[in-house]
Amino acid sequence: MHALGQAERSTRGHHTFRARPLLLTNAHVVGHADAGTASFADGTTTPFHVIGADPLSDLAVVRADGPTPPPAALGEADTLRVGQLVVAVGNPLGLAGSVTAGVVSALGRSLPASAGRATRVIDDVVQTDATLHPGSSGGALATADGRVVGINTAIADVGLGLAIPVNGTSRQIIATLLSEGRVRRAYLGLAGIPAPLPPPLQDRTGRSTGLRIIEVVPDSPAARSGLRDGDLLLTAGGDPVTSAQALQRLMLEDAIGRPLSLTALRSGALVDVVAVPVELVADD
Prior knowledge:
The protein is mainly beta. Helix content is 12%, strand content 44%. Among the domains are: 73-167, Beta Barrel (Thrombin, subunit H); 186-279, Pdz3 Domain (Roll), CATH 2.30.42.
C-alpha cells in the first residue's frame, strides 16, 4: 500500500518503505529542513526528522516519529520495459493523494544534479508520460502491482516526467544515508566528452570510444597527475572509460585517497599517470 503525505511547508510527496517507519523522498523536497510533519491520505499525521539527504542523487531518507500507514514495497527499475504501465502518485498543485497513469516512455536517461559547485549526472533515470506537476516531486512511480520503481523528481515538459530509479545504485545510497547520514564521493577534477579511438587502437582494445578531456581543473587531482586538456582517456583503474558517466561510477567513497592508475592517448602515444582522488565537497 502506498502512503502519501506532504512535508512541512511543502506540497510535495513521499512514501514509506520497508517495515520500519521510514520515508523516502527527494533531497530537494526536504531542502535544508531537519524535521517536519507528514500527513497521509488516510488522515494520519506524524512528526518526522531527516536522517540524511544526498542532493547529488536527489534522494533523502526521513524517519517518522509516530505511526504511519503500511509501507510500500520497493520494486526494481532494472526490470522495467518501455511501454510498461506505471502510475505516479503525489501532491500536484497541493492536491493530496493524486494518481496519474501512463507508460514508461524511455529508460536510461541522464539527469544533471548539483549541490553548490559540485555536479554529477544521475544515471538510468526513468522517463514517463504519466502527468507530473509541481508538487509531484518525492512521490512514487509505481508499477501496476503497486511496487515503487522510481521517485518522481522532474518535469522536462508536458508529458515528459523523470523519476530517480529504484535500483542497486539507489539502494546503496539509501543504505549509506541510513548508516552515515550522507554520501561521500571522490573527486578527480576533469571534464570530458566521448570521442572515437583511432582505428589501430580500436583494433587493439576492441573498444570504439574514449573520453576526450576538455578541461582539467587547476590544482585538482587530475592536474597533479599530469593529465592535460586534449588527452584521450582510455582506462581508469584498469576499467574502460567510454564516457563521463563511466568515470563517475568509479568515484565512490572507497576511491577517496587511493591511487588511481589512468591511461590516456596523447599525440599518438600512450601515457600512464596516477591520480589520487580527494573527497568531493558539495557546498549547498
